[in-house]
Amino acid sequence: MVELRENEQRTLHALKKLSGKGSVDRILNASGLVHAAVMRAALVLQEKGLIEIHESKQTIITLSEEGRRYAEKGLPEKRLIQSLIKLGGEAPVEEAVEKARLDKKITTIALGWLHRKGWAKLDEKAHVLRKLKEPKVGTDEKLLTLLDDKAPLRAEDLSEKMQKAAAALKKRRLVEIDEKTYRELELTDSGWKQVKRGIEIVQEISQLTPELIITGKWRKVSLRKFDVTAPGPVAYPGKIHPLQQIIQMVRDAFLEMGFTEIRGPIVQTAFWNFDALFQPQDHPAREMMDTFYLSHPEKGGLPKKEVLNKVAQTHENGWTTGSRGWEYDWSPDEARRLILRTHTTAVTIRYLAEHNKPPVKVFSVDRIYRNEKVDYKHLAELHQIEGIIMDKDVTLQDLLGTLKEFYLKLGLEKVKFWPSYFPYTEPSAQAMFYVPELKTWVELCGMGLFRPEVLAPFGIDYPVLAWGGGLERLAMIKLGLGDIRYLYKNDLGWIRRTPLCPR
Ligand code: PHE
């Protein structure tokens, strides 16, 4: 004996009353259950082999609001011609319209159809309406009446003529034609056996009440079972934006490794962004195409003369660093120009200039700006991750080890280091990460040991390990994005789908 629940028993009972077969609608009527309950029960019964569910597509015709009105009062053209007949077959338009009690809005429609159906003609000059022939009851009117009595109708049950009329009435928006799935349930042989064994409908309790508990009745009633594996509605809790989560992850990684966070202004002088980093004043990165320059105000302040002179000399002839410098006339005016920082190295060098004694171990995660055309892999406003370590005996090996550990904390294992070039570091390298989906290596950050030309003017006597790289790149890898712009689109669907905790 198959164990069945209340609604399943009720559905079987209804099917029995319907001699073993019936549409879902009829089962609704026979069982008193709601649609969802019958469908759920039907699926269970089908699974247990007690019934079969037959599905077919049907074209259902129903009356629209306007159609229903005309079905009662007659089509406007019919009403108009009948009034005309009463007026003797010929009358001024206004008179006929008034007699038919047609609404102003439908007069033109009525006249149009009168003409089309050949029932009457409008003599434009004399402005009189003249009957042409006896108006027969058209198929469209028959269909309206039929629908009024028996809607909904299945198109499949109608004659071809009627189906054409339905299409015409649809154009007049008097009927609606919809595709519907029609379901019929039918008892199988084992379903019949089950029914014959007897249907016992035991009321199920779906909610425990205090009363049931206090009186102890809960022991006797049949409690409705819940399917805890059934999918529930998806909930979208409020959460932190995915990019902000990645920023937090990066911060945590740095903090766990003993770094302190620093921040600096977004607007910097070219001095801190370029000159202090030994980038010559004719360096292509300084051009308008790459860097945003400010117009109001145009210039900012520079550090004190003493430091400035050392920077100037280093650029011009290498000062005491043993370098020959860039061999040009360094201009303080160029260094004074205000820009939106193009990298956060501007922040770290400025910090170093003010903290030139070891140890220094700081980082920043902040916004930078580049005059880029925005596309799937470029943004004009983005974030950089930047870190520096200054201490007595630190070496390139420490830098590589630190970065390896840092990226490992962020879940990136396959990281390699390739040689690279930056005007302010020697040696220089870049960290690369292998993305299996793209089958390529992508750059994570640039790094190196600051050159003496960078350190000497600020009186820094110890090696400085420095690195910096894009945050969005990292976010794309972590979030599996192919288009960087997604991070700033505020596409609610994407934000919702992104897990609460990135891997
Ligand atoms: N500033 C470099 C960039 O924007 C990265 C870098 C930082 C390289 C520090 C070397 C040292 O790509």
Describe this structure in words.
The protein is of the alpha+beta class and 503 residues long. The protein is built from 21 helices and 18 strands. The protein has helices at residues 6-17, 24-31, 35-47, 65-73, 76-86, 93-100, 104-116, 139-150, 160-171, 189-197, 210-215, 242-256, 270-273, 305-317, 332-335, 345-354, 396-409, 452-455, 471-479, 486-489, 492-497, and strands spanning 21-23, 51-63, 90-92, 120-123, 128-131, 153-154, 175-187, 204-205, 222-223, 260-261, 267-269, 338-340, 360-369, 381-390, 415-419, 425-435, 440-450, 464-470. It has a 7-stranded mixed beta sheet, sandwiched between helices. Strands 1-7-2-6 form a 4-stranded antiparallel beta sheet. Strands 3-5-4 form a 3-stranded antiparallel beta sheet. A hairpin with a 5-residue loop joins strand 15 (415-419) and strand 16. The model has no long low-confidence stretch (mean pLDDT 92). The structure holds phenylalanine. Phenylalanine binds at residues 343, 345, 422, 425, 446-448, 466-468. Phenylalanine (PHE) binds at residues 343, 345, 422, 425, 446-448, 466-468.
